[in-house]
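Handout, section 4.2: multi-component inputs.
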Amino acid sequence: MVNILIIIPCFNEQASLPRLISDLGNLKLSEKYNVSVCVVNDCSTDDTKQVAKNLDVILIDLPVNLGIGGAVQSGLKYALLNNYDLAVQMDGDGQHPPAELQKMIACYEETGASLVIGSRFIVKEGFQSSFLRRLGITYFHWLNKFFTGKSIYDSTSGFRLFDKKAIKLGARYYPDDYPEPESLVFFSKAGLAIKETPVIMVHRSGGQSSIRSFTSFYYCVKVTLAMFFSFIRKP
Amino acid sequence: MLRIQIIIIIASLAFLFLVFRMVIKGRLREEYSIIWLLFTGILVVFSFWEKGLLLVTNLVGIYLPTNLVFTTSIFIALVYLLHLSVVASKLQKQNKLLAQEMALMKIEMEKLKEKESK
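Output:
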């Protein structure tokens, strides 16, 4: 039996959460997988907490807003504490269709990688996001190649699968805000195998992305710095 | 005694008094008060002992005593600001850890409550 914990970090996702959870509930995975869903409420200002309470999920209710990284890490800590074999991070806004989970698990089974990233870019299908965002992603692809020596296309993707090793590492250290590209450097320095698999993403069905235009310059600078320091820091 | 000397002495003594009061009332922790007490003390000493300032200025090879005062105080303020950023980073880290522990504990508590009510 393989226990999987789906971690859904949520900040004001009351609109999209019920559908996502019901989609996850209808998901058909092979017999050996036992899926639990964990919603991390990152101190939402709307009714996310109440909505999640009425759903059949594990609710991690953070008393202060920690940002996406802190929320995901809380989920990883829960997974570590309760001895889960796999953890999957998934956005609460419906951008990552639950059906795509099968592809991630298939990739994990096939390669045995510690970290599987759901990528928009390997095969060009589905939602491809805006030009500026793609430019940023190209930049991070180049930066990641420089720092990790690996070619990871969708380094900002928040759709990722952690195995036991990655859960343990992530529970110990995970960056706070804009954690995705930096954590790749960290995981790769720790010697974990990272694989990417194509998934289809859809337009957000509600809420707002954590990356907005006026903060994107700050985002680039902060992430570049964080990746650099992760690179020179001893693991 | 020069007029400026008197002003500086009064200002530094008032500042010293303020720091003392904040420590006594528990609004400023002792470890953060050390640096303020120390430098206000130095300020008071040099405002009384004018020749001392000239002496140190000549010793380090600075032309004007005022330049020495400005350079050192700006440098000290910079170092102290860096120290405060370190403190803020540490607090943020601890804050995050506490929030996570608390949220995880809430789940455990709910589980226990459920068990009890059964």
